[in-house]
Design goal:
Elements lengths: L33 E4 L7 E8 L12 E16 L4 E5 L2 E16 L4 E11 L19 E3 L4 H6 L21 E7 L3 E13 L31 H4 L33 H10 L2 E2 L2 E2 L8 H7 L3 E11 L9 E4 L1 H6 L1 E15 L5 E14 L10 E12 L37
Antiparallel strand pairs: 1-3, 1-16, 2-3, 2-16, 3-5, 4-5, 5-6, 5-7, 6-8, 8-9, 9-12, 9-13, 10-11, 12-14, 14-15, 15-16
Length: 427
Amino acid sequence: MTSKTQQSSVRPYPELKGNEPTVPQFGILDKLHGTWVNWKGGPKGLHTTPMPSPGTSSETVFGVFHFKSQQYREQLTFSKVNAPVRNRAGSNEQFNGPVKYETAIIDNNNDLQHFENGMYLWLGDNTMPWEENGQYQNPRTMFSRPSTAATVDEDGGVPVIGPGEQGPQFVPPHSISRSGVIPHGTTIHLTGNVTHFDQNQKPKPPERPEIAKLWEQPYLSISPTMGIDPERDLIPGSLKKPDWTTKPRDEQIDYLGQPEAHQGVNSARAYFLNIFNYNKYGAKFPYTVQPNLLLSEFNEGLNFKSYDLIELDSQHDTGVQGATVNNVMIERYCRVVRMRHRMWLERIELENGKEIDQLQYEQIVDFEFMFGASGETTQWPHIQVNTLRRLEDIPDEDQYEAIKLPEEDEPVAKPKARVHCMNHKAK
């Protein structure tokens, strides 16, 4: 009886010996290259931003909060770097494909609200077993590198290692990473993967990207730590405002049987009333509660040919984590603890039969500041959503004026504008 050799699902990487790539691989990130903008007649971006109320402090006066939401327009530019970035890890070597990005955001008054730069990296496809005809996989970005007589001699390997030896082969858990620098004082590092949907594939995917369900908790500007339960406090399947949001604060009841003397003192309820009844700067219900409804509503009636979903996060259930690193003041008073990012790269067909690209994104940043009466930590979601198209796909008459960041020696148009936690002009 003969035994069969067990085959690993991880095919060995090609050995690196004079065959290192000279051209970078970008995978799905290749579709990002260029400048993406809002356009006249199209949707604008929207942000929801929580912040500590003036005069409060986590050390003294806590429990009073301010909410602000605004429409905005954006200029988002991606630039491919035409050289692979080599990471040497002994037994393995990786060649990243870098794509720089820069974004500038202004509000309806043309005031600069946010700018940021950073880099996306294509780390390689982590599909195993390897598919030679995979959509984003050729050529490889990972190589093996065993020791040789020359490296052992040059690096003084004896007696630790001899020629022809190497350690385990590393399988990247993620295909994409994003690092960014936010001038308010936070540096981010997110990792994740991409999923491709094509209308010709079987089974056929949904006609349009599935953004989120109505009142789906992870995408609301109110978090469970703030005391809102969508199944209890919102109307399932309805865009109608809940009755409790129409009552003044002094009539609010947090729970059945609450003593009348204590009714209306919960500052969280006051904050919720601001969110549900907000109507400033082009922002109002229901988008102040669930901003991504703007994305799904705009997509109704569009003819999607294909789309790719990139999902990135600074936190993962297992394995190596990403990061949000804050300057001292941000860390103490408005801590940024997590960032999630979803980006849809969509191919759509216009009414005239022309096919163009569309980019939609949702970005959720969790703040932690102050704390509730129970002493538990409260998370406050700061959300941004936008729909953009390539500049060259927008007719001249529908183009906005380009957004220009002030140069080092050039004053800001309105020096009175101030920025606060992560984004946007202070009230």
